[in-house]
Design brief:
12 helices, globular, alpha/beta, nine-stranded mixed beta sheet, about 300 residues
Length: about 300
């Protein structure tokens, strides 16, 4: 048994012992009913702490600066009932409904969701992070956010992550597993995989049998997990077209007053099918100057 495994087991025993002591103390008192919620909360906190500490010991862990994200206008667990939080609640609901209903063609999984745009700078990465954060607040789902914009990765910059091995490294090195590149975060239900080391044959890697097997593993092994891909713009690279053929749901981010109707139509023409393709109308401004995210089916 490795030193890390021994440390994790010791940690599990210590935290489990604390939870049992809390339960014994409550049972010894007459007012058991009034104390029961406190015991449940204690056990929940113990479980969360165990998961966090074990992640720090056994894999990569990143403590997300939620205050920084709040200042950037990104949904976080502590942001409360803000306008943007409400907008992304509306956006995520039909996506989750499709996952529950498994409304995809054979060979595609509804829990694989890709965000793209026609051109760069339309806000797809910003929307991908917001959507991931919003779904992470759900009780029944975990979220894996994958930066598939391998030529111009943005997720690390948004979240404050450094350079890490990621998607391309996983496809290049057969010895690596998902766990080796998975980054657990301080947001309980949110994990991240970065784009990884840039490679001149990124398109071929995304079109490879290895990528197909990886998507199958992610979709089937983690059936409670929503996998969100932040992909490159469809009109600028070929990587996005390759990925779009393999996911179950696609979201195209359209920037208000910038993306032309012709660009949107050309973007949709890049897709094999328009089934389960949706649009987010991004950066539309009210008179007050705030931004709005509209959600539409194509």
């Amino acid at each position: 048994m490795s030193i890390i495994e021994k440390a994790v087991r010791k940690l599990e025993k210590e935290l489990s012992s604390k939870a049992e002591k809390a339960l014994t103390q409550v049972d010894s008192e007459n007012n058991v009913d009034s104390k029961l919620p406190e015991v449940k909360e204690s056990r929940k906190n113990t479980s969360n702490q165990l998961g966090t500490d074990a992640a720090k010991l056994t894999g990569k862990f990143f403590d997300i600066d939620l205050e920084r994200l709040n200042n950037m206008g990104i949904v976080t667990p502590n942001s409360g009932k803000t306008q943007i939080a409400e907008q992304f609640r509306i956006i995520k609901r039909p996506l989750l409904t499709n996952v529950f209903n498994k409304s995809c063609k054979p060979g595609k999984s509804a829990n694989l969701i890709m965000l793209s745009s026609a051109l760069a700078g339309e806000g797809k990465s910003f929307c991908a992070v917001n959507l991931a954060m919003s779904i992470a607040s759900e009780m029944d789902h975990r979220v894996l956010l994958i930066d598939a914009d391998v030529a111009r990765p943005t997720i690390p910059k948004v979240l404050g992550l450094g350079a890490e091995k990621g998607l391309l490294d996983l496809l290049l090195d057969e010895k690596l597993s998902v766990c080796d590149v998975l980054i657990r975060t301080s947001v309980d239900r949110l994990n991240i995989i970065t784009a990884g080391t840039q490679h001149s044959h990124a398109t071929e890697l995304l079109a490879s049998k290895g990528m197909e097997l990886l998507l199958d593993e992610l979709a089937q092994r983690y059936d409670d997990r929503i996998i969100i891909f932040d992909s490159p713009p469809l009109l600028l690279t070929s990587e996005a077209r390759v990925l779009s053929a393999r996911v179950g749901q696609i979201i195209i981010v359209v920037e208000a007053e910038r993306t032309t109707q012709q660009a949107v139509l050309q973007t949709l023409d890049q897709l094999e099918s328009r089934e389960n393709v949706n649009l987010i109308y991004n950066k539309e401004r009210y008179v007050s100057g705030t931004e709005y995210y509209g959600y539409y089916y194509s």
